[in-house]
């Protein structure tokens, strides 16, 4: 039996953007746009009504911005996955979105096939950040000097076993489960179990937040 389509909610204050995204996503048979809203203040009621799997979230909106709306959604018991889709790619926007629990960050000029691919990926539990955004995020954290989060990040990572730290470090380098498995000689199922354990131990929402914690701590070497 075929899987049900991925349910998508579009959040953007530009009606033309909402219409364009809806038309684009309609061409993908495994995706279904279940609704769209024009402001972050409308997101929670819309999620309650439409029960989307993935939310495409703009940042700048008149009453409640997309970053605050992301924080609201991710605080729910069973939140949808969230992809930030915006024209703004400043370091602050990227980091706030990732720390809030967004599963992806794409720019609005991203080619349509890549947007469709990102929705499928995050719906399957694999966060998606474009390579350019990931490089910017890593560079920003690496160059930020004394970071008040660093000691806390190192304290949290110190609680992990050696194997958990190795997996966390590779997540921090943007490796997929299969790549981590090859590098550490583990099955994909075992890697998934490690990642689930990391999320529980570190009290995080997704892999992107594991990556941020690793970079806050200044640890990217699997042996570190």
Helix content: 40-55%
List how many beta strands DSSP finds: 6
Q: Major β-sheet, in short? A: 6 strands, parallel
- The ordered string of helix (H) and strand (E) elements is EHEHEHEHEHEHHHHHH
Count, helices: 11
Secondary-structure-based class equals alpha/beta
Cα-based radius of gyration, to the nearest Å:
17 Å
Contiguous low-pLDDT stretches (5 residues minimum) are none
| Strand residues, percent | 5-15%
Structure description:
By secondary structure, the chain is an alpha/beta fold. The chain contains eleven helices and six strands. A six-stranded parallel beta sheet has the order 2-1-3-4-5-6, with helices on both faces. Strand 4, helix 4 and strand 5 (104-107) form a beta-alpha-beta unit. Helix 8 packs across helix 10 (188-202) and helix 8 (162-172) crosses helix 11 (207-216). The chain is globular, with a radius of gyration of 17 Å. The mean pLDDT is 84.
Structural descriptors:
single chain; 224 residues; alpha/beta; 6-stranded parallel β-sheet; 11 helices; 6 strands
In short, what is this structure?
With 224 residues, the protein is α/β, with parallel strands linked by helices. The protein contains eleven helices and six strands.
Layout of secondary structure:
Elements: E1 6-11, H1 15-26, E2 31-37, H2 43-50, E3 54-57, H3 66-74, E4 81-86, H4 91-100, E5 104-107, H5 112-123, E6 128-129, H6 131-142, H7 148-157, H8 162-172, H9 177-184, H10 188-202, H11 207-216
Parallel strand pairs: 1-2, 1-3, 3-4, 4-5, 5-6
Helix pairs in contact: 3-4, 8-10, 8-11, 9-10
């Amino acid at each position: 039996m075929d899987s049900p389509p991925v349910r998508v909610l579009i959040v953007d204050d530009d009606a033309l953007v909402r219409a364009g995204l809806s038309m684009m996503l309609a061409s993908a048979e495994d995706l279904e746009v279940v609704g769209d809203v024009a402001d972050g203040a409308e997101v929670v009621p819309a999620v309650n009504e439409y029960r989307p799997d993935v939310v495409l979230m703009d940042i700048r909106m008149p009453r409640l911005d997309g970053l605050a709306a992301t924080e609201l959604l991710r605080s729910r018991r069973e939140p949808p996955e969230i992809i930030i889709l915006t024209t703004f790619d400043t370091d602050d926007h990227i980091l706030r979105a990732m720390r809030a629990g967004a599963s992806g960050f794409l720019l609005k000029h991203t080619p349509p096939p890549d947007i469709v691919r990102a929705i499928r990926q995050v719906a399957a539990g694999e966060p998606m950040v474009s390579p350019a955004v990931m490089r910017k995020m890593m560079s920003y954290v690496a160059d930020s000097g004394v970071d008040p989060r660093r000691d806390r990040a190192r304290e949290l990572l110190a609680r992990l076993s050696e194997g958990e730290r190795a997996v966390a470090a590779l997540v921090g380098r943007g490796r997929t489960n299969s790549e981590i498995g090859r590098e550490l000689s583990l099955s994909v199922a075992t890697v998934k179990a490690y990642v689930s354990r990391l999320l529980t131990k570190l009290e995080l929402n997704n892999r992107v937040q594991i990556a941020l914690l690793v970079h806050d701590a200044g640890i990217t070497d699997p042996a570190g």
